[in-house]
Amino acid sequence: MERITISLDEDLASAFDALIAERGYRNRSEAMRDLLRRELENARQRSEADGECVATLSYLYNHHERDLAERLTGLQHDHHDLTVSTLHAHLDHDNCIECAILRGPTAGVRRFAESIMAESGVRHGSLNLISVEVSASSQAHGHSHPHPHSAHHVHYRPRS
Asked: pTM of the prediction?
């Protein structure tokens, strides 16, 4: 680890300490590392839009909205190459929440997520992207993932 020192005015330090306590960090260093990672990731995604990512997409919708559930399912089927899994839960008699795990080219994942969130009746959509390095692998890493059709699989390593 490399040690750095920063100076903060008293109000900013107090607000930062309150955030640390609210989020349950053990110390300022852990909180600062998370803030830096988030900002570095945002900057990377703006400058390297052609890379690969994993992502979560969450959104609320009223399932009584005309044909909306079918349209959303159709979009997911049309982009089955990006959709890893989807979780669906009923919030009340009218509203549902869905959370999708996505992976693939960042630009494609972003376009797909935006198309879901743009559907009439979808509310509170949120996309969380994480840039990854993709590598094909076999059993060279000292572990195996048995698969009936192939001895190879893909690793998605978060970019640091």
From this structure: 0.69
